[in-house]
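Holo prediction. Input below; ligand is L-tyrosinamide.
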Amino acid sequence: MIALPILMQREKSGDGDNAGRGTSVITRTKPKTKRPNLYRVLLLNDDYTPMEFVIHILERFFQKDREAATRIMLHVHNHGVGECGIYTYEVAETKVSQVMDFARQHQHPLQCVMEKK
Ligand code: TYC
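Structure of the complex:
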């Protein structure tokens, strides 16, 4: 982590190290890390997409094993919506596109969306 100089407030008196030049500089020593915004990728239920197709989507694009994929698919089927995973913006966007493209290629109406956490 690079130590960034931080410009401090004006110093009015002329008796400090900066002797009336009006500014002083300190250096941040602690690394400042910021957490990325995270997004949930969700599958929406519909009446037409085959259960097996949804399980395949979860295995292929979300690295779920068969048991986890089946559990998530049934959750979506029973509750209307369910979480496939949590990702940074660009990864989430890519997953949504991959699922929507794959569903369209197979002429299923499956909907996949992302939502800021
Ligand atoms: N409801 C669908 C059916 O009964 C199955 C399904 C599950 C569809 C999850 C979409 O995201 C979905 N065939």
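The chain has three helices and five strands. That is the main takeaway for now.
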